[in-house]
Amino acid sequence: MSLDTSQPAARPAGLTPHEARQRLAHERASRLTQLQAIDEAGAGEGEGVMSAQKDVIKRVLTEIDAAFARIQDGTYGICRSCAKPVPVERLEILPYTPFCVPCQRKAV
User: Fold this and answer.
1) What is the residue range of 36's domain?
2) Residue 81's CATH number
3) Does 82 fall in a domain?
4) CA 46 to chain centre
5) Which of the 8 DSSP states describes residue 85?
6) Is 69 a member of any domain?
7) 81 by DSSP, 3-state: which?
8) pTM of the entire structure?
9) pLDDT, tens digit (0-9, with 9 covering 90-100), for 48-80
10) Quick check: is 63 in a domain?
11) CA atoms within 13 Å, Cβ hemisphere of 68
12) In the chain, what are the helix, strand and coil shares in percent, each to the nearest 5?
């Protein structure tokens, strides 16, 4: 009887372009669904809140489009501020981010 004590395969340094496109497409679809739901809810008491939500969603959609462009030009996953790799864990959570955490904190 043999026990396999090998370690699991190491995680790649970043997302592949295909994985990144899939995550971004999912994010885009989610945001478009949110916009549609807000539009279907129509005007009412929370019109100001809904307008603010729509603005945020539209900003995120713009960031998603910019991330698709970074995939195309080969800069996806590289921080726009310090030029270091953005950790894959951050890209899995926020696939459209152009910054690593330290640089994002500085920007805010």
Assistant:
1) 17-107
2) 1.20.120.910
3) yes
4) 28
5) B
6) yes
7) coil
8) 0.80
9) 888 899 999 999 999 999 999 999 999 999 999
10) yes
11) 14
12) 60, 0, 40
